[in-house]
Structures are given as C-alpha cells and as structure tokens.
C-alpha cells in the first residue's frame, strides 16, 4: 500500500511461507530503517475476513489484511494479484499496478524497466 510515499506491508507476510527468507529479511531491515511500515491486523480484520466468501476470494491472509487496512485507512493498494485487485475494487479501494505506483513516486521509465526485468527474473527462478 502507498500513502504519501510511505509503503505499508501486513506483518502477516512475515508468517508461514508467504515470502522467502531473503524477502522477509529485506522487509525487516526496511522496517527497522523506517523506510516501510509493517502493520498488524486487529480483531476487526478477522471479523471482515470471516464475512467474506472464501471460495469467491481465495486470497491469502496477508493480501486480505492489506485490502482491509487500505479500506479502513483510505490508502490505495499496490498489487499484481487479480483476485486481490478484484476484492479491493469491489469494496472501493483504489488499486495500482507496480508500474503505476513507481511512476507516482517519480521513478524514471528506464528504472521501472530495470525493476520489471528483475521481478520477471525472480518469478522465473521461483517457477523453475
């Protein structure tokens, strides 16, 4: 999520196998350096989660908590997951792609292209 150039991540991403060890370490370092905000999900999130149709929205808890937090705090969400996008849009949350978000914070197109290439390489290496 993005608010005033601050990036918010659900602390639920730090549990289970949602991220690799390196990704978790990177998020921890960024949080310690106050470059991102890790937020916790309270009991109101779980009420929201329990009311949703899990078959219609088969999204992991971290993504679901991000949508809820974005709605509650009027923050746009950044995602490439089409199910997360659909849920967010259906409950009135503004959704950006990674590229749109990078442009909003004035990243140059050549840097965006480089980041997209890195992400593609990571996805390919995880799928092999």
Keywords:
128 residues, mainly alpha, two-stranded parallel ribbon
Any overview of this molecule?
- This protein is mainly alpha-helical.
- It contains six helices and five strands; from the N terminus they run E-E-H-E-H-H-E-H-E-H-H.
- It has helices at about 20-30, 45-50, 60-75, 80-90, 100-105, 110-125, and strands spanning about 1-5, 5-10, 35-40, 75-80, 95.
- The strands form two sheets. A three-stranded mixed β-sheet has the order 1-2-3. It has a two-stranded parallel sheet with strand order 4-5.
- Strand 4, helix 4 (about 80-90) and strand 5 (about 95) form a beta-alpha-beta unit.
- The longest helix is centred in the C-terminal third of the chain and has 19 residues, at about 110-125.
- The protein is globular and about 40 Å long.
- The two termini are about 30 Å apart.
- The model has no long low-confidence stretch (mean pLDDT about 85).
User: What count of helical segments does DSSP give?
Assistant: 6
List segments where confidence is low: pLDDT < 50 over at least 5 consecutive residues: none
Order the strands across the largest sheet as they lie in space. 1-2-3
Span of the ends, CA to CA: 29 Å
Query: What oligomerization state is this entry in?
Result: single chain
- Coarse structural class: mainly alpha
Short description:
This protein is mainly α and 128 residues long. The chain has helices spanning 21-32, 43-51, 61-73, 82-90, 98-104, 109-127, and strands at 2-3, 6-10, 36-39, 77-78, 95-96.
